[in-house]
Description:
This protein is mainly alpha-helical. It has helices at about 5-10, 20-25, 40, 45-55, 70-75, 80-95, 125-140, 155-160, and strands at about 60, 100-105, 145.
Amino acid sequence: MKSLMERIMQGDVLIADGAMGTFLHAKGLGPGECPESWCISHPDIVKKIADAYVAAGSDIVETNSFGGSSLKLQPYGLADKVQEFNRAAAMLAKQAMGEKGYVAASVGPTGHFATEEFGDVSTEELYDAFTAQVTALEEGGADAICVETMSSLVEAACHLYLHL
């Protein structure tokens, strides 16, 4: 199978999934519950969602890791679960996709702003949080990273810098 980058460079149109959170709520994720924790507590459900996207023809499935940074997991008391949750998220998506396509690691905002934007975390803390998350997603088998829904330019830049 060609790499994702080769496919993109060829101009191939690739279909991706979406709405992981919506489906998790439909499957019983409660208000205020950590979606990423379901990669450990309900892996069968997370994988079945990815399986359904693959069956529907997705070339790319995303991981259940949108809020998987230590800064985002901290309010749940789960900041120490970054590696476990993210690695599992990528592995579940990879199991569903197999060799049929690609896994994109979903990385969302931390919910914090950098001190340069009058926020409460340093750029180093943002960078470290993203590094830990992305490393675990790579270890789990993610082929690419999908940086999503960033409203802070500094936060997005910390993530972009990680990939240069």
